[in-house]
Amino acid sequence: MPRASDFVPASAWTDRRQVRGLRGERAGMAYLISCGWDIEAHRFRYGRHDLDLVARRNHLVAFVEVKTRHSTACGLPIESVSRLKQRMVGRVALLWRLRYGRAEDRYRFDLLAVLERGRGQYEFEHIADAWRLEWSPC
Fold first, then answer.
1. 29-30-36-41 Cα dihedral, nearest 10 degrees
2. 109: which strand partners?
3. CATH fold of 15-131, please?
4. Is the four-CA dihedral 23, 32, 127, 130 of positive or negative sign?
5. Which of 5, 41, 55, 119 lies at a CB distance of 3.0 to 4.6 Å from 37, suitable for a disulfide?
6. For the whole model, what pTM was predicted?
7. Which runs of consecutive H residues, i.e. helices, occur in 16-124?
8. pLDDT (tens digit, 9 = 90+) per residue, 48-66?
């Protein structure tokens, strides 16, 4: 029986929500690149928390939370990012900033809502500066 810490390649994932999330993140990367962003990191981890995407455009760095859905029946993606989730993303973003940030960089938290339409088709809604944290310099 595999331990929780054992590496499992994405091709062996069985949870369809995780697979959908990974597809959404990959589609989101392609979308952001087409909009002129450079992807600095994908799934940057700190402990059990991660940043879905870290995107850069010149001196602006966006910590992007990607929410992928196949419908809006259970609500909008923005509604699924709780204050707790925002704080966790903020903590990991602070670590990324300390390790890789540059003196002239500006930071913000974005949300990228990805709606799967089937057959490899996606709709995107990029919400820039989706939230702010009082304690964070972002």
1. 30
2. 63, 131
3. Trna Endonuclease; Chain: A, domain 1 (3.40.1350)
4. positive
5. 55
6. 0.87
7. 16-34, 83-100
8. 999 999 999 999 999 999 9
